[in-house]
Write a structure and sequence with these properties.
With about 400 residues, the protein is α/β, with parallel strands linked by helices. The chain is built from 15 helices and 14 strands. The strands form four sheets. The chain has a five-stranded parallel beta sheet with strand order 12-11-10-13-14, with helices on both faces. Strands 8-7-6-9 form a four-stranded parallel beta sheet. Strand 13, helix 14 and strand 14 form a beta-alpha-beta unit. Helix 7 packs across helix 10. The longest helix is centred in the first third of the chain and has 17 residues. The structure holds FE3-S4 cluster. FE3-S4 cluster binds next to strand 10 and helix 14.
């Protein structure tokens, strides 16, 4: 891989050990994947933040690094609400370790906002064809697919290295030729809301890491595309998808996609099987309900607030969002919390140990539905947001 004189100096160690390590990681990845050079990135999102997932070894690794990131950088969700961790049953030892991890990232100049929806943050805007180094799979999918930006599926160390160097190796999804759809999925009936999470859950399982192009009966809303991408990234390893006539590259007149030879149609009965999980008695009744995977937008908070107005929950009901979205929508948060539900920031049902004492979680997210059993050791069932609210209220469904 070609390196400029400056980059070579960094790799030699002239700019310190941390930057030498970071450059070494980028060059190694570039060499493995056949990159010609490093390219500048606009922003980084660093995953591997929760103490639940990185433990003491991760904390030690981050704490040893020195330097300052060169591009705006934020964090993936942590293992707890950084301000109100007590109210979701986080113990003091975990909280102390989690706060040390956040401080170690802050020492590197990384913004301590912890979210899988960095595209909602002020000052973190993403444009068409921007190069990024993002680490959380749903955010990667949203950036690549819905925003038309370009990022590989970065791991924690590679996203952090890219943030410190301000560049990434030019391979994979940074190259236009690697962004062409190679699988066609047709859905001939109307979908709405969490149907997109169910669709993503099914599609991801079928296509693995392929790049699908969807043909849908109508254009989805951005929250629906957020759910679709998150679910496909979890049940499969999809980092980029297109929707004919909707997503930026599928609308770009300068890009012509050949029709993929692999094609499937998804039937309504397949979507129904995902919802049927909620009626499968072997999973048991949910003893906790969570929404906000990926983190809720303002519009999703509005919908939940409306469904809860004047009502009281009888089960634990946690709604995950970023602190910035919560702070900008304090009235909605307070309306939701009047019901006894909790709006929880900086974390989520999967990367936090908070939900581990429950036995069955109801979710409206295909990603959470896929990950909760393995990551939290409990059953998961899937429902619409309306059904999740009814479950939390103890209403007959
Ligand atoms: Fe975000 Fe956690 Fe879901 S990181 S996409 S809320 S599993």
């Amino acid at each position: 891989m070609y390196l400029t004189k400056e980059e070579e100096k960094t790799l030699r160690g002239d700019d310190g050990e941390t930057l030498q390590k970071a450059m070494g990681i980028l060059v190694a990845l570039g060499d493995i994947y056949g990159a010609d050079a490093l390219i500048p990135i606009k922003s980084a999102q660093v995953s591997g933040v929760s103490y639940k997932t990185i433990g003491d070894a991760g904390l030690e690794w981050i704490s040893d690094l020195k330097g300052t990131v060169k591009v705006p950088s934020v964090l993936n969700p942590a293992g707890m609400d950084l301000q109100n961790w007590e109210r979701i049953n986080i113990d003091v030892h975990f909280a102390k370790k989690q706060l040390e991890i956040i401080q170690a990232f802050k020492n590197l100049g990384i913004d301590s906002k912890c979210t899988c929806t960095p595209y909602y943050l002020d000052g973190f805007e993403v444009g068409y064809r921007d190069h990024l180094a993002w680490g959380e799979s749903s955010a990667i999918s949203y950036a690549n697919s819905v925003l038309g930006a370009r990022t590989n599926r970065e791991g924690g160390p590679s996203a952090l290295s890219a943030a410190l160097v301000g560049k990434t190796a030019d391979y994979g999804f940074h190259k236009p030729e690697n962004r062409i759809p190679n699988f066609e999925i047709t859905v001939g009936f109307e979908l709405s809301g969490s149907d997109f999470g169910a669709l993503g859950f099914i599609a991801g399982k079928m296509i693995g890491n392929k790049i699908p192009i969807f043909h849908l009966t109508k254009a989805p809303a951005s929250d629906e595309m957020k759910m679709l991408g998150a679910a496909m990234a979890a049940s499969g390893a999809v980092a980029l998808y297109h929707i004919a006539g909707v997503t930026p590259e599928a609308r770009d007149k300068n890009i012509v996609f050949d029709r993929p030879s692999e094609r499937i149609a998804i039937e309504k009965s397949q979507i129904d099987t995902v919802y049927a999980s909620a009626d499968n008695s072997s999973a048991g009744r949910p003893d906790i309900v969570t929404v906000g995977c990926p983190h809720c937008s303002k519009e999703e908070l509005e919908q939940i607030a409306k469904l809860l107005t004047g009502k009281t929950v009888v089960k634990e009901f946690w709604i995950f969002t970023s602190r910035e979205v919560a702070n900008k929508n304090k009235n909605l948060v307070s309306e939701i919390e009047k019901s006894g539900a909790k709006v929880v920031c900086d974390t989520c049902m999967v990367v936090s140990p908070a939900g581990d004492k429950y036995s069955c979680m109801m979710v409206n997210s295909g990603k959470a539905y896929a990950y909760v059993p393995g990551m939290c050791g409990m059953k998961s069932v899937f429902g619409t947001v309306e059904r999740c609210v009814k479950e939390a209220l103890g209403e007959n469904i």
